[in-house]
Amino acid sequence: MTCRFVAALILLFWGVSPALPWFPRSSEEALLGGKGPAPLVGTNQRYFVDEGDSLIQLARSLGLGYEALAAANPDVEPWTPETGRQILLPYSTILAGKLRMGITINLADYKLYLLWEEKGDIQVRIYPVGIGSTGWETPEGTFTVREKIARPGWTVPAAIRAERPGLPTQVPPGPDNPLGDYWIGFTERSHGIHGTNEPFGIGRRSSHGCIRLYPEDIRDLYARVTLGTPVHVIYQPIKVGVRDGALYLEAHRDYLGRFSDPLREVKRQALLLGWAEDLDRETMERILQDHRGIPLPLSTLAPRAGLRADASL
């Protein structure tokens, strides 16, 4: 089945997070099955550094994750960037072929994707997230929303108290609670999606395995999900997608070291999208090595008609 994406964009605003487009019902197979054109959505923007700015503060105020902003601007000093310097705000992204209805969390790009159907169209919202730190990795797999709690209290796990003996056994709701104002539990081992009282940890490996969102984003997400909503946690640092007849590559740091041959992975995804033409190896290697986390063009050639969508290397 060939799927075409409607060019018109309907902007959806929430909090400070970037607005993203909607997709027609005919795109459902592409988004859910991973065999159609993975679209590139959103538009990057430019910002001129003001006196006193830092990248971590800008990430918070502009609804971005810190690692995403820093990776997109590798030559910018993160704590004291030069006043007046132009930086890139990475609001564009490729929707990974592994996205499913409900919640998908891609650990490699520090984003949570919420997909739902509304009036016959597939809608998507994207939120930057903080994920599990080294030794406290967020579990991967397929889960469901098991519980929703507004103004949660926090029972501090014994393992965390062993690491930080000064913590109490219970933290009541309020501004000092690391869970923030909302909790969405999704595993039997008490992993959840929640707010935070440390917003500068969003877009970083900063948690004990849970998924952290900015306060305004968790408020929005909490209102949109119900008990039983699917939660898919994936790890996909390499994403290939299309926009306006061009092929794009988005590469993030493979911090788990799972892709020993990233060029092969790029070619595999390109074939799934119908691109049979040779891709420039030097360009692919540069994008993969720089892992700036922004979609960059690989080819402007139209895909070859009739290529099998399930082709693989």
Keywords:
313 residues, alpha+beta, disordered N terminus, disordered C terminus
Write up what this structure looks like.
- There is one protein chain.
- 40% of the residues are buried.
- The longest helix is centred in the last third of the chain and has 11 residues, at 262-272.
- The chain is globular, with a radius of gyration of 20 Å.
- It has seven helices and 20 strands.
- Helices cover 18% and strands 26% of the residues.
- The protein is of the alpha+beta class.
- A five-stranded mixed beta sheet has the order 7-6-5-17-9, with no helix packed on it. It has a four-stranded mixed beta sheet with strand order 10-13-14-16, covered by helices on one side. The protein has a three-stranded antiparallel beta sheet with strand order 18-19-20.
Describe the structure concisely.
With 313 residues, the protein is of the alpha+beta class. It contains 7 helices and 20 strands. A hairpin with a 4-residue loop joins strand 5 (102-106) and strand 6.
Instruction: Give the count of helical stretches.
Output: 7
The secondary-structure class comes to: alpha+beta
Beta-strand content: 25-35%
| Counted beta strands | 20
Name the shape in a single word: globular
The biggest sheet, with number of strands, parallel, antiparallel or mixed sense and barrel status, is: 5 strands, mixed
The gyration radius over C-alpha positions equals 20 Å
